[in-house]
Amino acid sequence: MDNASPQLENGFTRLANDLLDALLSAGLTARQWAVVMAVARKTYGWNKTRDDIGLSQLRLMTGIDKSHLSRTIRELEGMRILTREAGTHSHTLGINKRHKDWELPNQQPQLPKQPQLPIQQPLLIQPQLPNEQPGVAESATKGLPNQQPGGCRKSNHKIVFKEKKDNSKRQCASALTGELVERFATFYAAYPKKRNRADAEKAFAKLNPDDSLLAVLLKAVEVAKRSRDDWRRDNGKFIPYPGTWLNGRMWEDEPDQVEYTAAELDVMDAYNELMPADWARAITAPFSAQRAAAIRDFIGFAPNKPDMPRRYFGHCAANLKADDRCGFDWLIKRETYLRVREGVVKHKDAA
Predict the structure, then answer these.
(1) Radius of gyration over alpha carbons of the chain, in Å?
(2) Which of 156, 230, 265, 332 could form a disulfide with 238, with the two C-beta atoms 3.0–4.6 Å apart?
(3) Is the pTM for the entire model greater than 0.85?
(4) Domain boundaries, the chain
């Protein structure tokens, strides 16, 4: 036996056959299937029914981008395949084993069978002859003109059937009533992209928000306007349509970072405190997502040494001279950090 091949002794995931069969027949997309299997691996693979699972873990397991993962989890939660609750570090995810409670998009509601009514034949209308008395019918058909096989007389009058219009679809599509009209107008005025209003009205009516939820929606829109890079890029080209935003419950998405964390501010404060006055100061406003990411990367150079930034800046202050080309962002770059640690940059030489 090849010891390099997968072995049960190294761990396995127990999944009930009924649950697996239900998943196979659920018509999941490739992303949905990958997320469900990842959740199964993190829960059933460790003999647990639920677990704190972050988007970063799912991205490493599935290779799916975080933005797609967030939407896929909401889809599976809406289908009641996954359960999601607030956890310690992230959301607690689990698989809903009661697969009969799943709400799959391809399921059709079972309507009660209606009794079959007898087929009614159209009434044959005969033209009245001039010398015929009203209410008197012929007792025989022999010799009558326009006789058809089977004993039916051909009529020259057209039989017109009135078609009953089906207004059920129109009634279902009627979007807003009562207070929802005013609430939707408030939401639509605040949303930056005015496209497919009819779809937006349907989504809003389906959501049926009260005043408190409307306030949540409006706040989420304002936060997204300020913080989401995709909303601000190319004059809002990538802002989703309002109906898509509502149907996807995108107001629940975690907003992009809009201010520096305490750890990031500590690094900039240490730089400003320890570096000589002829070095450019590190300003904390306005917020820069690129600088925040660089600071997090810098802290990661020595994650188990929280005093590393202060010791590093102290060393740089003693060995590097100021240069207009160099400042905080240059000093925390990985290349600069390595050159300083290796002694390539020293003796007041910043080149």
Answers:
(1) 36
(2) 230
(3) no
(4) 11-101, 170-252, 262-341
